[in-house]
Amino acid sequence: MNLRRIMLIAVPYLWLVALFLVPFLIVVKISLSTTAIAIPPYSPTFDLAQGWAGFKDFLSQLSFDNFTFLTQDDLYWKAYLSSLQIAALSTLFTLIVAYPIAYGMARVPDEWRPTLLMLIILPFWTSFLIRVYAWMGILADEGLLNQFLMWLGVISKPLHIMNTPKAVYIGIVYTYLPFMILPIYAALDKMDESLNEAAIDLGASRLSAFWLVTLPMSRPGVIAGCFLVFIPALGEYVIPQLLGGSKTLMIGKVLWDEFFSNRDWPVASAVAVVLLVILIVPIVLFQRNQQKQQEAES
Amino acid sequence: MAQAKPQIVFDPWNDPKAKPLIQCRSITKRFGDFTAIDNIDLNIYEKEFFALLGPSGCGKTTLMRMLAGFETPTEGKITIDGQDVAQVPPNKRAVNMMFQSYALFPHLSVWENIAFGLKREGASKERIEERVAEMLRLTRLEKFARRKPHQISGGQRQRVALARSLAKAPKLLLLDEPLGALDKKLRQDTQFELMDIQERTGTTFVIVTHDQEEAMTVASRVAVMNAGVIMQIATPADIYEQPNSVYVADFIGDVNIIEGNASVDKSGPEGAVSIAYAEGQDPVHAVATTPVTEGARVFYAIRPEKITVSHKPDPDRANHAFGKIIDIAYLGNISTYRVELASGKVISATMTNARRLERRAFTWEDEVWLSWTRTAGIVLTN
């Protein structure tokens, strides 16, 4: 391998080391420390001036106490489980909403597609926070949705959605919808329309042609979309914080509270490390799916 | 009763008692204000290998898709085996189609692709096993049954598509440019294989193609289409030898078209006409198969291989023209000479290269005589 190629590969790796690995190692280090009333609020701190002996002393002070603590207080594993559940369910809801949209987009005449794609991406042009705040205005007891439904006469008293898990589901589905639509659309768009016709020609009904041909053909897109929604939804903080109220337990919120309310950086770091370990499983699966798809295409 | 000779001629279209498998009556198809198919009548008989031939955009694919049920005619009636199919959706028709892109299901194996149609009609497991095995044998794909479509070659994929569309033993098989994606050599081999399979299964085939050579090779009858209209339906030999219009003559193979004024030639045999086409040039002596009015504007179509090139006019032939060779296309087995007449008209003549090239009799700028018989060409009025 020549120098040029090494350089080319080195750039992204150096980037990853500097912006991911180093901060992550710092977080791991903090998670092994103990709290202290100091700046920064943990000990031991690493002091190069004391040389080898100082380093050994530093190592001996590290401990796994924070991780043991996570297993003792049921708040944490309940938060993890609840996060997994909310992320999984909202991924499912996003899929249910996104698939028909992507399917429709892949079936409309060509000249419509750029406009529709634009509309899907358009929300990204405004701040995510503002859009979540807007949902507060829509979902609140005296919000737009309830006023509208009451004006229609569908309900007589306001639906209580705000500050419940329902609002979190709505928020996640809304926010991550484009991440689900785009890969499914890409998969369906690539599909040859004559495959569907061939299935019908061979005796399949429209529904079974969809089930036996279209759906399997879009599977890589569905899998990619699900991971793209599930992974960020698992650690989601803003949406449960703004829409979920105090009763919605999600690990992102717990993490925030540990850091900023309790100022317990070591426990917060331990929570973050465990979250990452949980996320590694779907990320690896996602990578394998992408790789398999690339192999199938080549 | 002893028969003198076994009946081997297959021509149900000449038998007034034969009932066509497919009847199209005054079929018109419009997309918006574009007329894709304009009032077509068409009969296709059982066991026929029928070709729809025409340039792209002539409506041949639309016509085929109407037979498959993917398009419905704007006007007119299609019957298959006596049944009006207007209300029959594509998945209920005893018609299968082989798509131009083959449309093999990429997530299913070759075996599963072929079994797809059989499973949809709810055939028993043994029946499916047996039928798929039969199809694999017919298309020589036994070894590839477990492979996925992307793991086999283009020619093999073409055969899988054929096997899949034949698996349900349809009354009618539609083939949309079935050999378009294959290279020339493979295409020629596959043409014969297609004919062989058509004969063995006894299925009626309708093939759509823009390749006249392919249509001529495989088909029992050819329909030449242009701009939504069928120009002529005839056997390949008749299409070539007896085109009914300048369009058909020009579309199929090479042809010289000489435009001129006809006059009835009383001295010749019945139907003889003389066609004056240029000042100072002997008129063309021809025989018209349909009556021609005196002085009518006609087109005389003659194939290059029907004209001989020589140093002296051939006294046995009725027509002679004198000219100069301006171009020679050497194709190995044959050479095509382009000869410019005194009037400036350029005529192509093809000669077989029975002799070695270095002993060739004619070369560029040679002055030669072209000769052809009275019946070599055909008189067309449109």
From TrEMBL, chain B:
One of its GO terms (molecular function) is ATP binding. Its EC number is 7.6.2.11. The keyword Cell inner membrane applies. SUPFAM superfamilies: MOP-like (SSF50331), P-loop containing nucleoside triphosphate hydrolases (SSF52540). Residues 22-252 form the ABC transporter domain. Keywords: ATP-binding, Cell inner membrane, Cell membrane, Membrane, Nucleotide-binding, Translocase, Transport. The complex is composed of two ATP-binding proteins (PotA), two transmembrane proteins (PotB and PotC) and a solute-binding protein (PotD). This is Spermidine/putrescine import ATP-binding protein PotA.
